[in-house]
Amino acid sequence: MSKILQGRRALVTGASRGIGKAVALALADAGADIIAVARTRSQGALEELDDEIAAKGRACTLVPMDLRDFDAIDRLGGAIYERWGKLDILVGNAGILGPISPLGHIGVKDWAELMDINVTANWRLIRSMDPLLKQSDAGRAIFVTSGAAGKHKPHWGGYAVTKAAVEELALTYSAESRISNVKVNLVDPGPIATDMRTRAVPGEDASTLPTPSDIAPLFVELASPDCGKAGERVSFYDWAAIKRS
Ligand code: NAP
Q: What are the pocket residues of ligand 1 if the criterion is a CB atom closer than 6 Å to any ligand atom?
């Protein structure tokens, strides 16, 4: 029986662990071939992902790179065009938490890193991958936001500013894509048991939280050619509650 993403190709950033790894595996389960991005320091984790995807009978192309290397994002776009001529699915998931501290205490380097990874890399991905997504019969782009955006919570400002920017980026890109086959949506995960969550809320009992594998099917749904959603900010917790009801 044909799977819903059979023959489609997905680029997933932050695929070495956490939500990104689970999404890469779920997309592969649904029939997609994967292009997996994370930093070179995570080469071992990427190789494990490669093995797991190969065991599912799908192809995985590993791209160990730092997303702050913006020219490398352009080179990746060129390489995807040369090799496959198109991209069906872009998952802009990679992100960092940065310092949890008052705005005035955030170091200049830390602020720049937050902006580079959480915001500018996603803009550069749109810039490089949009022509490739347009070559697909049903291009799908999914970006990852956070409940922190819009809450104005003390000490979370650095991270929250970047997620508010990602929302503006994705929703504007969605509006610009209306007359094409490309559909763009945002996922707001809510608390999920990952390394980032442990850093954000140390001491929390992670066993009470949903896991990355719980949220991954939402990404599969949004990546599907049949997905009718565009320009939506989908809360995983709301989506899961509807699925349970
Ligand atoms: P995580 O476990 O810390 O994983 C982050 C991923 O991003 C890793 O694969 C990491 O790869 C990659 N990454 C970070 N900086 C990178 C860079 N410069 N270049 C390439 N890759 C880089 O985090 P997570 O919890 O899965 O978070 C995934 C997304 O969900 C993030 O955008 C986060 O803001 C969002 N989110 C998470 C939660 C939650 O509760 N977990 C809630 C709301 C939103 P390396 O191996 O290279 O470090």
A: 13-14, 16-20, 37-39, 42, 66-68, 93-96, 117, 144, 146, 189, 191-192, 194-197
